[in-house]
Design brief:
The protein is built from two helices and 17 strands. With 260 residues, it is mostly beta strands. The strands form three sheets. The chain has a six-stranded antiparallel beta barrel. A hairpin with a 2-residue loop joins strand 5 and strand 6. The radius of gyration is 17 Å and the shape is globular.
């Protein structure tokens, strides 16, 4: 089953597991050919991506008593615009009217900046959230957006903050989804060495960039299976040469990505 990797819900005892935006089973198609090494230097993306965390207020915690906050990944689209997955913004109770303080961390810089929703975009109009910042993030570097379609086996790279830890994943584009809730999604195979769960909880919203450093998609979900062995539950990824990450094509951001 597809497992969500929306912003981690945090409890007083730590992170409380996954938030699951997808519920449909995924039929995986094999693909030939191995992914090539990504061309862009991951260090060049470090100031373009940030961990975002919002601690819920008392009224919000009353709805989810075990949850104290939501954490995800975002990237800089403009001087006062960042992008994340729509389900991260909604889990943080962000809207278009109210400014809400969100902790942002990129590299060694960590600040609290008020955010609100600028708009929702994507193939289904609500897959990606563009957030407005009340003030610029010092030292942030914006990422360009690509409008062209992806080609099978094209190398990809992603920089994310699962569990608030900077991780780099490389891999390839496999195919576009065609059925059900996966229609129009960009299905990827991403990993860090042998770790196919690298884009885990908290990586939602991370940019997926092509060889030239242009954003082509936004990470949405990690595809996992939950296995039980000897009364112990274990999360495992998909088989090699099959997709393990669901992402949202970033084409809809092309016209928004203009200097302010």
């Amino acid at each position: 089953m597809p497992g969500g990797i929306a912003g981690d819900r945090m409890s007083p005892d730590g992170l409380r597991g996954q938030w699951m935006p997808l519920a449909a089973a995924l039929l995986l198609l094999g693909s030939s050919g191995a992914a090539e090494a990504a061309c862009v230097d991951p260090s060049a993306l470090s100031r373009s991506t940030a961990s975002i965390t919002r601690h819920l207020d008392a009224s919000e915690r009353a709805r989810e008593p075990d949850v104290i906050g939501i954490q995800g990944t975002a990237w800089f689209l403009g001087p006062r615009l960042i992008v994340t997955a729509a389900h991260v913004a909604r889990a943080m109770y962000l809207n278009e009217r109210d400014w809400r303080d969100v902790e942002m961390r990129s590299g060694d810089t960590a600040v609290s900046i008020p955010l609100r929703v600028a708009r929702f975009v994507g193939p289904r109009d609500d897959n990606i959230a563009v957030l407005e910042m009340a003030a610029p993030f010092h030292g942030a570097q914006t990422l360009p957006v690509r409008g062209d379609l992806l080609v099978a086996d094209e190398p990809m790279i992603s920089v994310a903050y699962p569990a608030e830890r900077l991780r780099v994943a490389s891999g390839r584009f496999v195919r576009y989804g065609t059925d059900g809730k996966l229609a129009d999604a960009a299905l990827l195979e991403m990993y860090d060495g042998s770790d196919r769960l690298v884009l885990d909880q908290g990586a939602s919203g991370a940019p997926v960039v092509d060889c030239g450093g242009q954003v082509v998609a936004v990470v949405s979900s990690l595809i996992v299976q939950n296995l039980t062995m000897l009364s112990r539950s274990m999360r495992v990824s998909t088989a090699w040469q099959t997709p393990n990450v669901v992402s949202v094509p970033a084409n809809g951001l092309k016209d928004i990505a203009k200097p302010e």
